[in-house]
């Protein structure tokens, strides 16, 4: 079972800036291209950080956090960003990056772990080649029910389990998969359900043994 790759979903038209790019030029680029963040790259096009709208807005409110002041041992990071005038001072570093051959699951996991909305995509040499966002990853749920059902029949039943496509009835409605029938003793329901969950676009999986309500209805062919 193969998930879509980051390279299938990423945008390769990436607006980028250099560490010395001035504050106002960054603000102009965010507005002009209707984006919320821009990667900062070095002279070899390798990402070194990201400047977001939130970084720029610290200039407006001064970077002073709510609550007690710091310990006086030096400027807080927010204070430093509030006084920064170029990308080098504004950026959050290091940049969190993905490889183009990562699966959508890998990318989603890293986004969740770091609490970020996008990942910069780099090639084997570490050079920036694209960006993938949460919205891009969610596109896998736009797959048609027909495509999902076909992949379950071909990949899960035939290729992975060695079953005939007709051995299990597969209904798919809005990404909800209903499996019904009787499985051979050597095939467990949990294994089949897990294989179905690995198919991009699947929202939920339910198995109904033969004889259960709704188990003998006609298969949905999808949209």
From TrEMBL:
This is CBS domain-containing protein. Residues 60-85 are annotated as: Disordered. Residues 145-213 form the BON domain. SUPFAM superfamilies: CBS-domain pair. Keywords: CBS domain. Coiled coil: none annotated. Residues 10-67, 91-148 form the CBS domain. InterPro entries: BON_dom, CBS_dom, CBS_dom_sf, Diverse_CBS-Domain, Transpt-assoc_nodulatn_dom_bac, UCP036990_CBS_BON. It comes from the Bacteria. Gene3D superfamilies: 3.30.1340.30, CBS-domain. PANTHER family: CBS DOMAIN-CONTAINING PROTEIN CBSX3, MITOCHONDRIAL, OS02G0818000 PROTEIN. SMART domains: BON, CBS. Pfam families: BON (PF04972), CBS (PF00571).
